[in-house]
Amino acid sequence: MSDYIPRELLIDILTRLPAETLVRSTLVSKSWYSLITSPSFISHHLNRTISNPNNTHLLLRYCTEDPIEQEHYSLRFDDPITNTFNEYAKLNFPFTCIDPPFGIVGSCNGLICISDDQACYNHEMFLWNPLIRKSVSIPYPNVRFRSHGSFMHSLGFGFDSVSNDFKVVRIVHIGLDCNRVPPEVELYTLKTGIWRNISDKALPYIVVERSRQAYINGVSHWVAHTPRFGHGGIFRNLIVSFDMNDEVFGEISFPEGIAGEDKLMQKMSLVVFGETLCLIQHCKSYGEPPHCSIWMMKQYGVADSWVRQIRIDLSGGFFRKPIGMRKNGEVLLGTREGYLVSYDPESKRIIYLGVQGTIDSDCWYSFDVDTYMESLVLLDKGADFCDEVISDRFCAKRVKRTDRTQDLI
């Protein structure tokens, strides 16, 4: 059929189709396979997908323990008009479920970066495109427990639109004296497949351990603070940023009045609402009931534009912590019974979303959320795969550590 359709018209038609449909379309003919798996077509399809904001879904990860610990990943409709949270696709998680489980580092342009390195020293990381069932195993980083001893670290993941490449950044504070030893910084790129050291670009700040990134417009953000010297030293909280394009670190000030609150430093987190950077402040001060405040930065990078937009009462212990924001402005929260709920800060209405995870004190392992946009990224990578089924219960396949690129179809 393509012999009678101009190539430009065929590309225009095909790039409008969903990724899963295009994967099946590679079976039509050799010429279609060659076209759809070409880097230029994959890039063209991605650009068209990005241009339509309706192509994004909410990525949900949650853990269950009955009868054994399992990880579940799914895509959810998050329509601000109909207020639906129905399941769009249940994702077959292709990696072994270990203790502690994997966590989402970030999601960008159809790839999900996951790591089990956020609470231990296993150093297992993958880039995963669940809709076309492809993944790339990221090699072990250079700074590891075996060679450097104990450390604390945080991870970031994003896309460099200039070089058309995906990157993972790793900020590592080695040893116990983070106040005096500058961090080691490593950067992995998908095109090269290796880590390189960029510690000379690091800022003299301490990124809070296991700080979950907030990714906006090619920039990763983490909660951090300045070094503290001596007993009772004074420091300030801030946000450290990393631009994936120029590989440069930056800093953003906290809202005035909470930048220096030592007792709250470990209870700060970042989320994204649309294209807005949000700071969640967990308050358990004497003299007032426990609550959390959500600050929104109305003008990116301008410290004076922080506005405290939402206040959620945490007294009584029903809510554990905010997980993320929905498109309609409601807040996703984990409860003490392990349920995921949607909370309307204006009407105070609570909606149970039909998802129950593990019961833990701060919902650290129970839930992760991010945005997901389908793409063909990784479709042009190698097809080395392993179909060793580890358990029907897990509904997953083991990915070998030695394999660089896995085809999980």
TrEMBL record:
SUPFAM superfamilies with a match to the protein in the record: F-box domain
InterPro entries: F-box-assoc_dom_typ3, F-box-assoc_interact_dom, F-box-like_dom_sf, F-box_dom, SCF_F-box_component
Residue intervals of the F-box domain: 1-45
SMART domains the UniProt entry points to: FBOX (SM00256)
UniProt superkingdom: Eukaryota
NCBIfam families associated with the record: F_box_assoc_1 (TIGR01640)
Protein name: F-box domain-containing protein
Species, as recorded: Camellia sinensis (Tea plant)
Lineage: Eukaryota, Viridiplantae, Streptophyta, Embryophyta, Tracheophyta
